Amino acid sequence: MFCRTLAGQRGVRRARFVLSVADPRAESAGETLTGLVILRAGLPLPELQHEIRTVRGTFRPDFAWPAARVLLEFDGAVKYSGRYGAAPEVVVAERQREKELTNLGWRVLRTDWTTVTRRPRGAGRPAAPGTVRPPPAVGRE
Q1: For a tag on the chain, would you pick the N or C end, based on fewer CB atoms within 10 A?
Q2: What's 65's domain CATH number?
Q3: Of 59, 57, 63, 58, whose CA–CA distance to 28 is shortest?
Q4: Angle (nearest 5°) at CA 26 between 20 and 27
Q5: C-alpha–C-alpha distance, residues 60 and 72, integer Å
Q6: Could you give the count of Cα atoms lying within 13 Å of 83 in the half-sphere of its Cβ?
Q7: Does the residue 5 lie in any domain?
Q8: Among the residues of the chain, which ranges form H helices?
Q9: DSSP tag of 28
Q10: What is the DSSP-derived secondary structure letter of residue 79?
């Protein structure tokens, strides 16, 4: 509705597009931007915050392609800033989680701000039917 009142104004077309593809399940700006890179790359649409139950508990990776057993996590610096505990403890917990998911047959991929903002064209290419190739990883938020 807000965009209708601004019809013809600069940026309204882009705002409409962003609002049409925004997913409320994205838990950060980085996840939202990664979702847009996935969409623009022509990759199959992932499930966001897909629940995976393990012996260590239920995990909710940022992006999941369950049929392909592929996960994509957006790594932002906030995760390691101390907000969620001491950085070494956060990294150890992250590695344990990743190991658990890998042991269950999931392939865990990572991406970050550098990948999705500075190299969006290289972050993903159209996938052949039945395949999934989410953005590659590099590190920073």
Answers
A1: N
A2: 3.40.960.10
A3: 63
A4: 140
A5: 11
A6: 6
A7: no
A8: 2-5, 12-21, 29-40, 87-103, 113-118
A9: S
A10: G
